Fold this sequence. Notes:
The protein has 11 helices and 24 strands. It is an alpha+beta fold.
Amino acid sequence: MSSLFQDLSPAAPFRYFEEISAIPRASGNEAGIAAYLCDFASARGLFCYEDEIHNVLIKKPATAGREAEAPLLLQCHTDMVAEKHGHVTHDFEKDGIQLVREGNILRADGTTLGADDGFGVALILAVLADDTLSHPALECLFTVSEEIGLEGANAFDYSRISARRMINLDSAEEDTVIVGCCGGLRTDLTVPLCFEAVEATGLRVTVGGLCGGHSGEDIDRGRLNAHVLMGAVLRELQAVTPFRFASISGGDKDNAIPRECEAVILPEDLAAAEGFLANAAVHVADCVVAEEDRGLCLTASRAGLCRVAATEDTERILSILSVRNGVLYSRTVPPLMPETSRNLARLRTEAEHLAVAFSSRSEKEERIAESRAELDALAAELGGSTHHHAGYPGWVSPADAPLVRSWQRAYLETTGKETAAAMIHAGLECGLISAALPGLTAISVGCNIHDLHTPAETMELDSMAAIYQTLCRFLQKRA
């Protein structure tokens, strides 16, 4: 093991995390990590199956004397969100993650860390590699493209799995055992734009310095959406001087709160627009609610333009930027948390249209349908169209199920601390897998990971060790 983790124990999960971090594995680019997993299984004589989209299933027989116990499914996803700071030259298709350790905290050098869900991959590999560990028969499923719509879990052939107990290792709070999550839907909205050629000087307006975050787990933490903030600023500018859009872009991932947005505009009164935006840049900090967004900045600089959208397109774009966003409905009974949310995730002006991506989440199917209908109505009003995809169901397991209680006992015995059963406002593969395996009882567990889906992502190393030790203790207990 490298010097980065040589002082940590148990060593195996950290060794595997370091090894997989060197493999590029952004969503859609999982062939390399799949090959690694297959080689790992082959070297240990374990059953391994890889499907055509690079989902991998590895099976390990029960240790002697435990053959009669019900098998257990361990599950995680191999892909990671590929986000980086604007100045970073990292190529997610070719480069491994550059790990940086600061005491108990692990982060990456200017990019997402990939602890979501690299920690899960590492823990399962460490379990499979340990021939001294007593356990029931293990079926270990490594899925792909979770971060872009749970595509791997949706496509897998579950006739290959016999287990009806599952531990999903894809959560981000050590002291919580997840027993339910919301369902979700992604929507691509396309609106046609008409451009005309010009030779003019306009303004490049940029919103940046925001923290962003996971569009489910962080949606209620007051973090600003760069697109929504840009819309609010430009709506006020419109009252000062009319303008037309030349372009607008922001966001990269459908499941991340956008951190940056850039709009290039042509104001009728350039000086008035510059004056307004200079004043807005001074006061924009007043918009900050969450401490994580304290780096917010608004800048404006002159830019040469060769085309602008038609006048009526300005209002259409502003209508999209002002659509309901964030937490739409909250639960009124415990646990008090978001019930329904929507994230304006990504937008781009293309050759002749504006492409926008939304993600909707809710524990209630009728609320997902409501969000879908609202976006359909918006698209129709603007002369555009919608494409809904990557839908997935919510999921709930009984909070007092034997699987839940067994994990809670193992965690208490390992750490001396209690762990609470909870639901989360995020999507997990448990819903799709439960629908495919009738009778399945599932939980989701994980270590402390912060600022998921952003370059600020960090993981607590002692927490990763605690969850691995809890998993080992759980496996050693006879069902």
